[in-house]
Design a protein that fits this description.
By secondary structure, the protein is an alpha+beta fold. Helices cover 31% and strands 20% of the residues.
Length: 286
């Protein structure tokens, strides 16, 4: 299992920053641009607020996940790794806000500056509609003050989406965009068309809006283990979460209690880093 702390210690110039004041100044030999400074401001805000604020809703709505955060003594920090910019004499840095423990670490996506009033008062906003596509307990726990998280599996964690946990809403990947053969894609489209929510505004078979909530395996590495996907229908008020075992849409299942299932799964990953989980026992065939 990849150990982020060991990686930082062995990488020249890598930074582990858990003091928000350290983000108010450039990193060593760096001349940050406006976009970088904007990202740092978000990271600084999250560090200032802390884990208990970010996951406040999870304390009651995903209690196993929240308790694992406490029991495993996770710390919130910005991890930055330098690289040489060919167009500049200064260094540039890849950086990410991370949840770090001795066993396992995660990249935490800074959230859009939305708050609870926005969820209630802006129901037609695209991001809010995505938020409301998920069960309230899941959306509030992982997306109210962050934009999901990724299990850190290797040294490429700063520039690849690795999921393993409820991933980004704003950069969610379509379930139909994963690598698959033409026949598999046709089967996937047929299956998703048969279960799509026909009440969704502007709904048609050419705009299947099933997004990936998480992959148990990192698809970027083309692992031999196909793993399992959890997917949801964007903009649907039904708040259903489906299971795609081994990336095979012919085996599609529906979580019977997604709030409990995801709480159990995410707490397991926090404690062990293990993403294999018995989703079959908490779902029914579709």
């Amino acid at each position: 299992m990849f150990n982020l702390i060991s990686y930082i210690r062995s990488t020249s110039g890598a930074l582990f920053i858990d003091d928000p004041l350290e983000l108010e100044k450039p990193f060593p030999n760096e001349f940050p641009d406006d976009i970088t400074l904007k990202i740092r401001k978000k990271q600084e805000k999250m560090l200032n607020k802390g884990l208990e604020w970010i996951f406040e809703k999870a304390k009651t709505q995903q209690p196993k996940f929240y308790q694992a955060l406490i029991d495993e003594k996770f710390k919130l920090a910005v991890v930055a790794v330098p690289f040489e910019d060919p167009f500049s004499e200064s260094l540039s840095y890849y950086s990410a806000l991370c949840l770090v423990s001795e066993k396992v670490s995660f990249r935490l996506e800074p959230g859009i500056d939305f708050f609870e009033d926005d969820i209630l008062n802006r129901p037609k906003d695209g991001w809010v509609r995505l938020f409301n596509s998920l069960p309230t307990e899941i959306a509030s726990s992982y997306y109210l003050r962050a934009d999901g998280m990724d299990l850190i599996r290797d040294e490429f964690f700063l520039n690849l989406y690795m999921t393993g946990m409820p991933g980004s809403l704003t950069a969610a990947q379509s379930a139909l965009n994963i690598p698959m053969s033409k026949s598999m894609k046709k089967n996937a489209k047929d299956k998703l068309t048969s279960i799509m929510d026909k009440t969704v505004e502007d709904c048609n078979t050419d705009s299947l809006r099933f997004n990936i909530l998480l992959n148990t395996e990192n698809q970027e590495t083309k692992s031999n283990n196909a793993g399992t996907m959890l997917i949801y229908e964007a903009f649907s008020p039904l708040k259903k979460i489906f299971v795609v075992p081994e990336m095979d849409f012919n085996k599609l299942r529906l979580l019977t209690d997604p709030v409990q299932a995801i709480d159990s799964y995410t707490s397991q990953v926090l404690m062990t880093g293990e993403t294999k989980f018995d989703f079959e026992s908490v779902s029914v065939k579709v």
